[in-house]
Amino acid sequence: MSHVLVIYTDDEPGVLTRVAMLFRRRGFNIHSLTVGPTEQVHVSRMTVVVDTDEATARRAVEHLRKLVNVLEVQQLGHGRNVVRDLALLRVSTAQGRSEVLQLVQVFRANVVDIADDSVVIECTGSLGKIEALVDSLRPFGILELGRTGAVAMARGLRSEASNRLAAAAVVAPGSTGAMSV
Amino acid sequence: MDRTGAQIIWECLLREGVETVFGYPGGAILPTYDAMTEYPIRHVLVRHEQSAVHMADGFARASGRTGVVVATSGPGATNLVTGLATAMLDSIPLVAITGQVGSGLLGTDAFQEVDITGITLPITKHNYLVTRAQDIAPAIREAFAVASSGRPGPVLVDITKDAQQGRATLDWEGAAPTRHLRHIPPSPAEVDLDRALVMINAAKRPVILAGHGIQLSGARAEVLALAELAQIPFAETLLGLGAVPASHALSLGMMGMHGESWVNQAIQEADLLIALGMRFDDRVTGRLKEYAPNALKIHVDIDASEINKLVPVDVPLGGDLKQVLQALLPSVKAADHTPWLERIRSWRGDSAVRDIKNLPDDGHLYAAHVMHDLWKITKGEAVVVTDVGQHQMWEAQYYHHDGERSLITSGGAGTMGFALPAAIGAKLARPEAEVWVVAGDGGFQMTFAELMTAVQEGVKVNIAIINNGYLGMVRQWQALFYEGRYAATPILSPDFVKLAGAFGIHGERVEKRSDLEAAVARARQQPGTALIEFKVEQEDAVYPMVAAGAALHDMIRRPSPSPIAETGADPV
Predict the structure, then answer these.
(1) What would the mean pLDDT of B29-46 be, rounded to a whole number?
(2) How far is A174 from chain B (nearest CA, A)?
(3) Are residues B199 and B131 part of one domain?
(4) Whole domain around residue B227: which residue ranges?
(5) How far apart are CA A147 and CA A126, in angstroms?
């Protein structure tokens, strides 16, 4: 079962290693991991999708909370989230370009590059939508596939974690980025 | 005031209350050593950096303060690894400061460059790579805060040579740490406290599992108050020995692999387990599927990730043990569990009579004799620092610890070679204490170079080497589970008495129980470190025993008929 964890961390070198090392060390299986900046300076946000049971996911949260560089961890409940993934696909058009383009329209994806015998398609959506597009295009010949992994956010009001974060807005004293690994 | 990075390091240590550090100099840490002479901090020069960590660890365990280690880059730093892992697994607060090559050389495989922050990432609570003088104070202050707060542990601060040589202004207040406060353990939910109280007040066959967390939290009084009020017997983990007094009427003794059979039986038949600052290690649970099948489980731990890790619990109480117990105690009802206590007592049966220590002297010397007699002679008041193996278990069975921080041993990691250096650290932390090393012939040979450290530093520890000519615990497993094939377990030792002579310390050998008392008396009277080699029965084994992976009540008993009876700890 997939669980989506949102982790707010210090924006310092090496924090990704610490998080990844924790997952490896404790044997938590990462399905995808994305990381990027947030609305606050010095704070990064990771979205980690883990394939595991509920108890293990909860344990992963508790372990993450012990990392000095972690400000907040949020385990998104099922159903009330926006989870988005971006895929780039190079698909062969040897069997006819128009059928491929039709599918692109159906999935509300975009063609971002056209070559003689292939096109590059960009698609953003839920994990399920991307899987469906990939399945539909497979018969034409998928030459290349790249995916970002999920970025997720809870629906409705601003999350409690994000609120707490804004209230705290802690920056490590003397934190220079060069201090931590 | 403008200072060098090296001066800032010592200034910070001084302000953190550090009086003693354990270390070994080298190229990349030289600027720091050069500045050391300006500060009133004692430096203990070790013979190997691993021992420096064990000393700082022993210092921390004996005193409750944070131990400090200094080492150079490369091999100096990698030699810390075993010691850091030992401290990590046993939740010991340490700060290790390592020199690193100049920041311009980082990543170039420069001479004596290793990625020590990368290497120690999973065996430290946190670590830092500091490349500028102005970042040293915030890193060291935060390191001390992280090491000692929450569940304690080791922290490493790697400081490049140019950061030590560079200059900066020390802004002590500005360097005050805050990030360690991010995850202060929450107090348990009211509803969980209420549920715990209902269970405690309703239990008929309760057992307290007393762990190391009692010591770390300073919760002895609260634990005893709970036990006495509700008449709940308590069983100790290895690191819980001494956290609560062994001579207490409600103390059952050690649980687990080499725990007493009645203790494990009590856990297996309990209807309520109250786990206090312990983490259900595989050495205390046996096969998880069959662990305490009839018991409701309440688990108090400051580390929420320990709760529901191995044993599913009914009531999770994440938080500081002392505070949690203070919240519970006013609502705990006085209870009388006489039938349950009687039942546990009946399981003891005749074990005290059959106990090896009570048998007539048959001319052989058994380690159990040594431990028992040492306990008697020192009135149980010594700080005993054990190594790892059979002697460690015999010590745990036969030396009954009443005092807090009176047993120092590597529990989680089981690090051989720990005892001698840790004892030197313990003695430096508590100079008034009588400190005994109890080590096997194998483990002692791993770190005995530190005898010279003890001599150079004028430290007195008493050393009991339990020499059976084997790596005894491994041999025991080979005897029980590998059809007696003693692969690589027979081990030769030097003449320990002559060895003591070479180090300029008192040394003697004991082969008969009747000679033991006088030898121990002579060792205690020596002004300096003294060593006694006890030549004990070679193929004796630690009983009872739960085989790895067996259920907790499924204990291997001493084979019968045997000249040696079952061991059994009865503090008489």
Answers:
(1) 98
(2) 6
(3) no
(4) 190-348
(5) 12
Rg for chain B, CA atoms, rounded: 24
> Out of B130, B175, B307, whose CB is closest to A173?
B175
Q: How far is A37 from chain B (nearest CA, A)?
A: 19
Chain B residues with CB under 8 Å of A63 CB are 305
Is the confidence at residue B350, as pLDDT, over 70?
Answer: no
Of B181, B202, B233, which residue is a domain's last?
B181
Does residue B491 share a domain with residue B370?
yes
Prediction pTM value: 0.94
What are residue B516's DSSP bridge partners?
A: none
pLDDT digits (tens, 9 = 90+) for B373-405: 999 999 999 999 999 999 999 999 999 999 999
The yes-or-no answer on residue B483 being catalytic is no
Residue A130 C-alpha, separation from nearest chain B C-alpha, in angstroms: 35
**DSSP assignment letter at B77:** H
Give the integer Cα–Cα distance in Å for B498 and B484: 33
Q: Which residue is listed with tokens 């404790």? A: A26
On the question of pLDDT at B362 being above 90, the answer is no
Q: B135 vs A18: CB contact, 8 Å cut-off?
A: no
Summarised one tens digit per residue, pLDDT across range B506-537 is: 999 999 999 999 999 999 999 999 999 999 99
Number of domains within chain B: 3
Task: Tally DSSP H helices, then E strands, for chain A.
Answer: 5, 9
- Mean pLDDT along residues A122-147: 96
By Cβ distance, the residue of B122, B129, B183 closest to A25 is: B122
- Domain ranges for chain A: 2-80+155-168, 83-147
- Identity of the residue in B129, B132, B138 whose CB atom sits nearest the CB atom of A173: B138
- Does residue B325 register a pLDDT over 90? yes
pLDDT of residue B119: 98
Q: Are the Cβ atoms of A179 and B139 closer than 8 angstroms?
A: yes
Q: Which of B22, B38, B139, B32 is nearest to B87 (CA)?
A: B22
Look up the CATH number of domain A83-147: 3.30.70.1150
**B211 with B342, same domain?**
yes
Nearest to B368 by CA among B334, B332, B393: B393
